[in-house]
Amino acid sequence: MPNLIRAARPLIAALPLVALVLIGPLETAASAKVAAAAKPAPAKPAAARATGPWLYRGSDVPQDKRWTFGELPNGVRYAVRHNGVPPGQVSIRVRVDVGSLNESESERGYAHFLEHLVFRQSKYLGDGEAIPAWQRLGATFGSDTNAETTPTGTTFKIDLPDATPTSLDLSMKYLFGMVSAPTLSDANIKADLPIVLAEKRERGGAAARVQDTIREVLYAGQPLATRAPIGTDKALNGATSTSVRAFHARWYRPENTVVVLSGDKPPAEMVALVEKWFGGWTATGPHVPTPSFGDPVAPAGTPLVPGGAPIGETRVLAEPDLPRSITIATLRPWRKVDDTIVYNQGLMLDQLAQSIINRRLETRARAGASYLMAQVDQEKVSRSADVTFIAVTPLTDDWKGALADVRAVIADAMATPPTQEEIDREVAEMNVAFASSEEQSALEPGGRSADNIAQAVDIRETVASPEVVHQIFSRSIPLFKPAAVLQHTRGLFAGTVTRAVMTTLKPGEGNDAALRLALSAPVKADGRARLAAKPVSFDSLPPIGTPAQPVGQTPTGFPGIEQYDFANGVKALIWPSADEPGRVTVKVRFGAGYRAFASGDAAYIMLGNMALAGQGMATLGQDELDRISTGRKMGFNVGIDDSDFTFSADTRQADLADQLYLFAAKLAMPRWDAAPVLRARAAAELQYDGLATSPQGVLQRDLKFYQHGRDPRYRTPTPQELEAATPEGFRQVWEPILASGPIEVQVFGDIDRAKTIEALSRSFGALPARTPLSPATLAATSPLPSGGAAPFVVLHHGDANQAAALVSWPTGGGMTGVREGRQVEILANLFTNRLLDRMREKLGASYAPQVFSSWPVDLQQGGAITAMAQLQPRDVPTFFATVDEIAADLVANPASADELARVTEPLRQQITRAATGTAFFMYQLEGATADPSRFGAIRTILQDYTVTTPAQMQDLARRYLVPNTAWRLAVVPPGVNVAGVSAPAGQAPSR
């Protein structure tokens, strides 16, 4: 079964990933003997199938009956399913079994290049017509219309909204023509090559170098080591129509193709479309078998990792701006498996073993280990290896100490069985994830279910319904015993070879031999991280205060949504909805957001995002929060916006009262533990320099600062500023914030209204009255960026061929102008289409230029239309000139009706689909208890975003795309002249 569940819950920001990955074999004796290692044995599984649906042959996993499977005489396989989420949509996936591992040396990058060329022109679509064609059908480029190439496959993805018989037939026609008969001309190759090279350039830099090194070292001797999908400049520049056509003919064949449709149509209709368009496809030439991807091989005579595998290649590289990191991998051969119930029970034991180790690693990190984070994860990689990874982030240059600390925790796990209490804790975590998935199975979007089939084909396994997965897990619980988990723990670290890569800040901190020696050094098991069985109950926690029922109930005008007012000023919006079984979303909105901070608080703002939840509340510290939420669906996400703070979580009715308690207790009884702040500070310091290694990193670091007129509150703090921040200072900043300002609580989803009101009464209704926000806080705004001047030039110190540029025009904000803000979004989408056509399709200068609009409804200013692109430094002036030309044309000339329809129809479909879920209304109604006009504004949202005229767009362009109001930013390497402004050579990059 593929990966259907990730059993990780964001209760604590620093909690490591605790995931149940139902994919990938573990080719060890421990895995093969799991059924005999623990008693009682599971019920005897059904016999594996030799016939039947193609995806299930060799498996005894019960077939997911929601799917209809079939095979056409020419070899095309298909899977179709009725799925009404969202209503009217059909998701189509066409997966071709060809990726970068199918390439020869002279073809490196061809699989991905062909993905681009297929979209360029094909049998039923002229040059550059694919994107406009689907836009006219309501599909948004990049989200609804996309494709991806991996080492093992190429998948074309269409999420077709409002799938009428005509639009669905057209889409299938287009897709068939694309994969079977693309126009692979020299002219098209010449046109698409700059786009592919731009994508390669924009994904380059220090992080890409590290990833390339990791791939080359870990998979040494296998094709995967040198077959990144993006390819090489040499092979791509050498591509011709002859060579690309030969690659296409070799691999784009019916027997290599799977067509998946999941959507709001009868299965018989979807099967008929597959047969109509793909049934007549015939391949030319003989079938070419998939090449061997090889096996990991250990060099002869290498020492053993104690209790593990022989040590192979090790590599140390210096990247002065990236955090230190160590990646260790134990590799085993990948083999196709019979995806049986017993096999999946073995995977569950593997995941239990990983979860226990990861929780112990996190416990040691919190207790002061020499690493910031460490995690173990096992996965199948590109049908090339079954790998157990260990990832370590050292806190300092004492990487040997960090590695020793991690190895000691793992050594203890390999030496001594876990306690049953530890096992039961992780089983409870996994169970709640499986139960939630089963409860919410009716909500699975068609696109996700289609992706699950494509993933199953890729890994050569099956799919199972959430109900079946939960049943298999429940039946397997008697197997989850200490001896069995120990056996699987040892199996995780046994294999053919162990390899490692370490990144250091400077040469000399380590070398290949030192890393190898550290891996092979004896290690003493460290059992201090074993978790003590100390259950914590909500019943033992202090009350928030005296429970208080609502004093007022206000109809909102929306069926089912009601507002409840409490005497302490808290206001709540409640919407019970049976349309989303098992799903409850809670959001608490309070305070004044960035307006509440002083100019020197930047470090504490960042640390608040990272550490506020982890500090706990009342008598609960971080470890107690973990324990009290075991087996519960709870979370704690913190948000800081321009005008408010938010706590949010996904939960369920059974856990809702305790979820509300956690949020209310954070406001009423905050706890100020130092450890989470110090750990967050270390993490922020480690990541800072890495933000200067690429243009996108600099934008991540500085864009909000420039957007807000260089308001220091929005500046990313330097390591020096972070080092000066203290736990005491953190409390001084955040304590008054948690105690002041109005509170709005939203509870939407599968809830009981009476029980929810009672839970609110005991939590938020019991809070003391809040300190009002001062007029000065409410009036605090950021200055607007100065327009009309030369570009701001910010330096990065990554690759010399990378740059970024943007132009931003101020617009407005506030609810009174919200319709205009929505119309500006249409204008921004018009701008995006033109910028894509010019900078990507015609010039090949940027892979994904974009224009986006912001219109803050809580503030009267701060909105903007912003055009942005990543480029080569030499193309920055071209970008500025192109943006100016497009803006001037939008001012001077109305858009055509067709151009406008290509924007408004996708927007119509986006809104229509989003409005089928409660999350859409929750977002739109934020702040409605203080500003009831939002209830009215939501009623006009579809019209506001979709009904307009070319003349109205031209009028908006005249009002907002004014040259002397725009401000510009260029992110370049040192020494580059940008539109007459030069960042002097040798100048230190901005930090």
From TrEMBL:
Record-annotated Peptidase M16 N-terminal domain positions: 89-224
Gene3D superfamilies given in the database record: Metalloenzyme, LuxS/M16 peptidase-like
Keyword field contains Hydrolase: yes
Domain Peptidase M16 C-terminal: 240-428, 743-903
Protein keywords: Hydrolase, Metalloprotease, Protease
Recorded superkingdom: Bacteria
Record-linked Pfam families: Peptidase_M16, Peptidase_M16_C
InterPro entries named in the record: Metalloenz_LuxS/M16 (IPR011249), MPP/UQCRC_Complex (IPR050361), Pept_M16_N (IPR011765), Peptidase_M16_C (IPR007863)
GO MF, any single term: metallopeptidase activity
Family: Belongs to the peptidase M16 family.
UniProt name for this protein: Insulinase family protein
Native species: Novosphingobium flavum
